[in-house]
Design goal:
single chain, alpha+beta, Ubiquitin-like (UB roll), DNA polymerase, domain 1, five-stranded mixed sheet, binds FE2/S2 (inorganic) cluster
């Protein structure tokens, strides 16, 4: 079966089973490897993409159900060749360790900050409840986001 998918503003064709999880279509057919397939059960958030602007675990989304939707992966954020201010602040704060969680983390935070551009520390924690990071302990990620959004000094 041929599926026409709108990915990062472009029409892309996928030839295969419409039950194929979107994360596998992105990674294996489209070679967009930012979204990571880690738990494949919707718990870790590493595969997060935006579907019609809503952060969605792409491991749980059959690709056939994404036809007609605007799919945005981390490769589609920002202006071509440039990172977003959120990505830059995370880089500046040197918070990325193994990096497995970060594309999903960025996708979640990007959508969240559109709705709440000046969150509190607790609100950022709540926003990240579906994104598991095994390396960083979260605090430096939250510090980085606060420094972007509120100009708040990082907690020590
Ligand atoms: S791989 Fe999709 S939520 Fe973990
Ligand atoms: S940086 Fe390794 S899981 Fe988050």
């Amino acid at each position: 079966m041929t599926l026409s998918l709108t990915i990062n503003g472009e029409e892309r064709l996928f030839y295969g089973d419409p039950m194929t999880p979107l994360v596998d279509v992105l990674r294996e057919a489209m070679l967009l490897t930012g979204a990571k397939a880690v738990c494949r059960e919707g718990f870790c958030g590493a595969c997060m993409v935006h579907i019609d602007g809503v952060p969605t675990p792409s491991c749980l989304k059959p690709s056939g159900l994404a036809v007609g939707c605007e799919i945005t992966s981390i490769e589609g954020l920002g202006i071509e060749g440039e990172v977003t201010p959120l990505q830059q602040i995370l880089e500046d704060h040197d918070v990325v360790q193994c990096g497995m969680c970060f594309p999903g983390m960025v996708m979640t935070l990007t959508a969240y900050l559109k709705d709440n551009p000046a969150p509190t520390r607790d609100e950022i924690k709540q926003a990240l409840v579906g994104n598991i990071c095994r390396c960083t302990g979260y605090e430096r990620i939250i510090d980085a986001v606060l420094s972007l959004t509120n100009g708040v000094e990082a907690a020590q």
